[in-house]
Structure formats: structure tokens, C-alpha cells
Write a structure and sequence with these properties.
This protein is an all-alpha fold. It has one domain. The chain is built from three helices and no strands. Helix 1 runs parallel beside helix 3 and helix 2 runs antiparallel to helix 3.
């Protein structure tokens, strides 16, 4: 267990950043009507299934409509 305690200063900010990015991505998906590719349901699923940075990053790279 001492190994985990040594990693906590790195893991806590990383987890916080992950949840902030997830929250912002879901907020963005829910407040916009059009997407470059896919639908709202698709992007919610991709974001939640790929929660560990991958889903939100994919949305902002491939799904977010430029406005």
C-alpha cells in the first residue's frame, strides 16, 4: 500500500482533471444541436464509455461543430 500513497499527489489532480473534462464535454454535448459527425446519443455513449480522456478528446476532435 505504500506505493499507492506515493502516487497520490499525481493521481488526485489527474482524476480531478478527468472529471472536469468529462463534465464539460457532457455539458457541451447537451447544449449543442449539431455535430460534425454522429448524433447526440452517439457522442454521449463515446464520452461515457471512453471516459478516461479518450472519449472527451475524440468528441472535441471529431464531433464538435465549429461555431
Amino acid at each position: 500500500m505504500p506505493e499507492v500513497r506515493a502516487l497520490l499527489p499525481f493521481l488526485i489532480p489527474l482524476a480531478a482533471a478527468e472529471f472536469v473534462l468529462l463534465g464539460y464535454t457532457l455539458f457541451h454535448i447537451m447544449t449543442h444541436r449539431s455535430y460534425k459527425r454522429g448524433s447526440r446519443g452517439l457522442w454521449i455513449a463515446v464520452t461515457l464509455i471512453g471516459m478516461q480522456f479518450i472519449g472527451p478528446v475524440l468528441y472535441f476532435l471529431l464531433g464538435k461543430e465549429d461555431s
